[in-house]
Amino acid sequence: MLGSSRLVCLLVLLLECCLWVAAKRDFYAVLGVDRSASKKDIKKAYREQSRKYHPDKNPGDKNAEQKFVELAEAYEALSDDEKRRLYDQYGEEGLKGSGKQFHNPFDIFSQFGGFGGGSFGQRAERRGPSIVMPLDITLEELFRGVEIEVEINKQIICPICRGSGAKSHEHVKTCHSCGGHGVKIMRQQLAPGFVQQVQVTCDVCGGRGKIVQSKCAACAGEKVKRGSSQMTVQVERGMGDGQSIVFEGEADQSPDQRAGDVKFTLRQRPHPVFTRKGDNLYMTQAITLKEALLGFEKKVAHLDGKDLPIARKTVTQPGFVQTIKGQGMPKFGFPSERGDLFVEYSVVFPTTLTAEQQKLAAKLFEK
Ligand SMILES: [Zn+2]
Ligand SMILES: [Zn+2]
């Protein structure tokens, strides 16, 4: 009898112990990364570790299976900006409260491949302002496509406390004054016998429901700091002046809202030779009177740096426009197709003729 009650006691103790361990486990430690680890580092760590503990590699090993599931849970929480923010601020509790549940760890592999993602739950969330930046670009770059590295200075969520402002999430406590609700009910006496209840924002926690006991040293509890981010702007072949390239959620970060977008607007610098209209290119070519009368073969330096041959075999009138098919700009989205090149000719006349030349010209045009 005594034995069995002891056993129950021990079981309860064990269970509590398990719960305690579950609540306190650190996803960063599970993945073996630093609290300031980038998304890339987290992905890399998860890939390496999950490969090691994959059940296919460890058949029948319950510990490996447990570790594998734990890795997936840690990765799921830390790979998503919103979930990571919640985890950093409130620990695993924060993830449960928000109804963001873990998926089957085996599904998580399907998340690799595309980027994007991150669209779950609430639609009408607060978004920060977008940053619009002009990006000067040459016609040559629009012709062949280019990758431009841009560094922007912006407000970032403190990489050490991940926006909680606290030393760690254990230093974030529920506000005792409002019980974590962020609001308090106050009773106001309007007149003798008439009492109205009003809801007011908690003055102790400022409506957050949480109190930071020990501030993060890196941001002095401000949650954000100035930082920069490196972006690779992919200008695709055939893009045009005024076209925008958008980086979603890359503007100033703030712990209370989703970051706005960074929008680069292309601004094409004027080109000394070519003018662009849609997918077509226009240029003017000067030829001599002799070339205008007798024809010519020439080479024009194109935007890809190659020489493009142009030729006429008959008389070319001043202002004549020659169409060269398929030598315009690549079409955006279908760069194998191209617009046309239009060459307008201007004729340069000799300023004087010698007596000899006059005689010959007179003879030439006699009939
Ligand atoms: Zn901080
Ligand atoms: Zn409060």
Automatic annotation (TrEMBL):
<feature type="signal peptide">
    <location>
        <begin position="1"/>
        <end position="23"/>
    </location>
</feature>
<dbReference type="InterPro" id="IPR044713">
    <property type="entry name" value="DNJA1/2-like"/>
</dbReference>
<feature type="domain" description="CR-type">
    <location>
        <begin position="145"/>
        <end position="228"/>
    </location>
</feature>
<keyword id="KW-0862">Zinc</keyword>
<dbReference type="Pfam" id="PF00684">
    <property type="entry name" value="DnaJ_CXXCXGXG"/>
</dbReference>
<protein>
    <submittedName>
        <fullName>DnaJ-related protein scj1</fullName>
    </submittedName>
</protein>
<dbReference type="InterPro" id="IPR001305">
    <property type="entry name" value="HSP_DnaJ_Cys-rich_dom"/>
</dbReference>
<dbReference type="InterPro" id="IPR002939">
    <property type="entry name" value="DnaJ_C"/>
</dbReference>
<dbReference type="InterPro" id="IPR012724">
    <property type="entry name" value="DnaJ"/>
</dbReference>
<dbReference type="InterPro" id="IPR008971">
    <property type="entry name" value="HSP40/DnaJ_pept-bd"/>
</dbReference>
<dbReference type="Pfam" id="PF00226">
    <property type="entry name" value="DnaJ"/>
</dbReference>
<dbReference type="InterPro" id="IPR018253">
    <property type="entry name" value="DnaJ_domain_CS"/>
</dbReference>
<feature type="domain" description="J">
    <location>
        <begin position="26"/>
        <end position="91"/>
    </location>
</feature>
<dbReference type="InterPro" id="IPR036410">
    <property type="entry name" value="HSP_DnaJ_Cys-rich_dom_sf"/>
</dbReference>
<keyword id="KW-0863">Zinc-finger</keyword>
<feature type="zinc finger region" description="CR-type">
    <location>
        <begin position="145"/>
        <end position="228"/>
    </location>
</feature>
<dbReference type="InterPro" id="IPR036869">
    <property type="entry name" value="J_dom_sf"/>
</dbReference>
<keyword id="KW-0732">Signal</keyword>
<dbReference type="Pfam" id="PF01556">
    <property type="entry name" value="DnaJ_C"/>
</dbReference>
<dbReference type="InterPro" id="IPR001623">
    <property type="entry name" value="DnaJ_domain"/>
</dbReference>
<keyword id="KW-0479">Metal-binding</keyword>
<keyword id="KW-0677">Repeat</keyword>
